[in-house]
Amino acid sequence: MSFLGFGRPQPSSAEKIAAVEAEMKLLMEMQNRLTRACSKKCVPNEYREAELNKGESVCLDRCAAKFFDVHLKVSEHLQQESQQRGSGGGFGFGG
After folding, report:
1. What torsion, rounded to 10 degrees, do the Cα atoms 83, 11, 3, 6 define?
2. How many alpha carbons fall within 13 Å on the CB side of residue 83?
3. Are 86 and 69 in contact (CB under 8 A)?
4. Residue 82 main-chain phi, psi, to 5 deg
5. Rounded-to-integer distance, Cα 25 and Cα 28, Å
6. Cys-Cys with 95: which of 56, 57, 75, 90 at CB 3.0–4.6 Å?
7. Which residues lie closer than 8 Å to 10 by C-beta, 6 or more apart?
8. Cα first-last separation, the chain
9. Nearest one of 68, 61, 56, 65 to 30, comparing CA atoms
10. Taking the model in full, what pTM does it have?
């Protein structure tokens, strides 16, 4: 129920659970993409040691940092576009 009849109605428990499940699925997919991309880039197919060496560790650290940086920038850009569309700022890029 909304406050004093204004705004959107509050989501039901089932809707809240569905939203959390959808968010968890997106986070799992992002984790899987990060793991695949950075492992492919930084860890050789043939393992020479049981542990990661220093170069592999540094590469994985930088790859993960870049992955999250790009994800954050893309999310911010999409959010800005969404807000511009919502306020009548036009459609698509540049207008």
Report:
1. 50
2. 6
3. no
4. -65, -40
5. 5
6. 90
7. 1, 2
8. 37
9. 68
10. 0.66
Residue 38 burial (CB count, 10 A): 19
Residue found by looking up tokens 């997919």 in the block: 29
What's the confidence (pLDDT) of residue 4? 59
Question: Distance between CA 8 and CA 16 in Å, rounded?
Answer: 14
pLDDT in tens, the chain (95 residues): 445 556 677 778 888 899 999 999 999 999 999 999 999 999 998 888 889 999 999 999 999 999 999 999 999 999 999 888 887 545 554 44
Three-class SS of the chain: CCHHHCCCCCCCHHHHHHHHHHHHHHHHHHHHHHHHHHHHHHCCCCCCCCCCCHHHHHHHHHHHHHHHHHHHHHHHHHHHHHHHHHCCCCCCCCC
